[in-house]
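Summary of Year 1 activities. Much of the first year was spent building the evaluation harness for sequence design. The harness presents a backbone, in tokenized form, and records the residue chosen at every position. We chose the following record to illustrate the format because it has been used consistently in internal testing since the harness was completed.
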């Protein structure tokens, strides 16, 4: 299948690599001549060791890029007016699913009423990090979301379907929460920039390479995430209140999270999973330290 990409910046180039590696022919639209030449060189270099890659052609005209495409991936700057203009043109030129790599803007904002439009927001760079958030608008055809999910999975990505639109989606909201606190810690004279980076790089980041925040809490406390919330919830609430945040972990919310975790990991398998986590973290540490 042909995939069209609008924009040959860093995200557009990375998406071209993702889809070409999966064997798709890729057509990239880029209006800037200098950027077209740079993108050709970047894509050629990164696909040099992928003999089965699909062809990648870079176009100066949008019409030529989207002609015959089975999927369109928009990778323009985070500019609402520009995205609205592009999606209006997409809707006229093709009947393919229309996905945006938007970092925060929602499809309701830039593609109102276009049932084939949604957000497919990748981690950066998507040719290395597999996660991609699929964020449909209320008017997005569910069958379109299914098609995009299948395409992404087939291209080696790990799609996550959000249940509703929200600015920043999940990835940037989690990332933003950590970054806001990091700025506050510097501002308040608690630690320096490099020290905070080291705490994440050598601590949190190594653990999060293996498990996420909910599983971390679940495995850090015997008795699981419910016990963790009982013991540490009040301290986290005080830390949040210090920053003006009032989002309590209510008993109902804790019960909901606990039910999802127990469906994934019965408590009788807790010790087994802790041992698995430790082995994986040792492997991550060894790989990182070996490459230092």
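For this record, the design step produced the sequence shown next.
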């Amino acid at each position: 299948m042909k995939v069209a990409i609008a924009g040959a910046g860093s995200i557009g180039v990375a998406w071209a690599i993702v889809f070409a590696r999966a064997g798709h022919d890729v057509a990239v639209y880029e209006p800037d001549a200098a950027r077209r030449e740079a993108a050709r060189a970047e894509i050629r270099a990164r696909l040099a060791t992928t003999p089965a890659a699909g062809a990648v052609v870079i176009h100066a005209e949008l019409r030529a890029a989207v002609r015959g495409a089975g999927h369109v991936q928009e990778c323009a700057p985070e500019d609402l007016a520009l995205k609205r203009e592009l999606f209006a043109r997409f809707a006229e030129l093709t009947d393919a699913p229309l996905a945006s790599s938007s970092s925060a803007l929602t499809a309701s904002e830039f593609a109102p009423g276009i049932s084939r439009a949604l957000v497919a927001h990748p981690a950066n760079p998507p040719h290395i990090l597999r996660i991609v958030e699929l964020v449909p608008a209320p008017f997005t055809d569910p069958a379109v979301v299914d098609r995009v999910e299948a395409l992404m999975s087939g291209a080696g990505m790990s799609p996550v379907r959000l249940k509703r639109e929200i600015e920043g989606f999940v990835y940037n909201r989690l990332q933003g929460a950590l970054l806001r606190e990091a700025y506050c810690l510097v501002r308040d004279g608690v630690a320096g920039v490099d020290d905070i980076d080291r705490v994440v790089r050598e601590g949190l980041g190594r653990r999060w390479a293996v498990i996420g925040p909910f599983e971390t809490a679940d495995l850090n406390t015997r008795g699981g995430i419910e016990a963790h919330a009982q013991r540490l919830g009040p301290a986290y609430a005080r830390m949040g209140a210090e920053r003006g945040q009032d989002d309590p972990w209510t008993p109902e919310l804790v019960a909901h999270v606990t039910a999802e975790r127990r469906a994934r990991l019965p408590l009788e398998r807790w010790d087994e999973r802790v041992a698995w986590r430790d082995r994986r973290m040792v492997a991550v540490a060894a790989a990182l330290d070996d490459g230092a």
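The beta strands are 2-6, 25-29, 56-59, 71-74, 98-100, 117-122, 131-136, 158-161. Quantitative recovery figures across the full test set are reported in Table 2.
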